[in-house]
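Q: Two folds, back to back.
A: First:
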Amino acid sequence: NQKVLQSLDATAFRIAKHIERLGYPTILIPAGPPTDLHEPGKGMWGWISQRYVAVEAGLGEIGLNTSAMTPQYGPRVYFGSVITTLDLEPDPKMEKKICLGETCNLCVEACPTGALSVAQGPDGPVGVIDKRKCQPNAQSWGLMTALRHIRDMVVEPEQSRQLDLLFSEKTWHIWQSFITHVGIDGMCGVCLDICPVGKHPRPHSLKEKALAVHKDKAAFKERYCR
């Protein structure tokens, strides 16, 4: 997914440069990092919410998995943004419902950490995500993993053990994640994978099998949690 984000940023950069050549100030909003770091425990936040911008631009709606989804690709889509003073005619917001909601509920049921739930919003059921539960799977080699690893080295009283931690396989994984972004985000994606919305929805016969696999909490903990 990092290659997709890089491609989005490159495309947005070309668009921004073209608009600026027309004489209108323009700002590129990255599709991925860099981001702002909120207070400890609140995680990383983008400069703007790309998913809500996409909804306002008429590209789709927010599903129960709390991701933006489109009729063509469901939630398996990324967005980039350009802010400009150029006067553009906006598209209307999409009125058609895309997410199947609680009649489907696969994303909520399949989440390996139980991070998704449903609450009643002003216009009907809405998805709610507990980022503290989601983060260990989605960012298995992200910032918190690195900070905990550094903490373990700092508080270790034995120098030999400190060196073991420093030159451990975990340090190697963290370093690779920092330079490639692999493992920093987008590692889980169960709620995106299992969603039946899109041009090529998952055949019904596979839904139960997929749900059974995704609900194997022990298998997901072994694969993702660090």
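A: Second:
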Amino acid sequence: MNYNIAKIRNELSANGVLRAAINMSNFLLVTDKKEDGTPIGVSPDMAHELAKDLNLKLELIPYSSPGEIADDADKNKWDICNIGAEPQRAEKIYFSSAYAEIQATYLVKSNSTISDIEDVDMDGKTISVADRTAYGLWLERNIKNAKLLTIDGVEKSVDNFINKNLDALAGLRPQLIETVKTIKDSKLLEGYFMSVQQAIGTSKENTEASKYIADFVENMKVSGFVKKLILKHKVDGKLSVAKLA
């Protein structure tokens, strides 16, 4: 496809700088940071590559949560964002197809009557989940019978599960693999209830840039670039390359 690169650059940057919002709470996509706080990981590297493609300078803007990034979607505080694509967020943000995905599942007590994913959404069950995470938003749309107890932050959702003696803790599988080691008599359920689709988003007003970003993401998957980033940042087996659109 032929693109009007000048128009794309103009849509994404008023001064030759691409401002990329980065979710610092996703430890698989942001695996470290420099002394000055600059994020390091798959997500920042994807932003770097897009800026390089468009011959733009890059400014990484760290956010403590994806919800805060979504809140700023119409406030001209960023030009692209690297977060999980969810329908609620897509009301204000255009998302590419996913470049990577992460499974989400549940942690339960070892003696729990819950033995598989389908057992969680039942009357009388209560699920602890971090508010406004991609998997939390999915649960808000799909849980029909169990009660969701949302709280700001992953660590607080773990505390709620323990202190309030709840039935299940929802989270990203790689994160729960570590959490289960710290909670006595707990276990992870097999399988997953959804996978978080990590994508690149931009304003819906950026009509030409949206098409360019969509093709960029597909090319990054086909070329093996995303897989190289996963290996580079040592998150192989936890973060997967998403399927082609």
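Q: And?
A: The CA atoms of residues 98 and 199 lie 4 Å apart.
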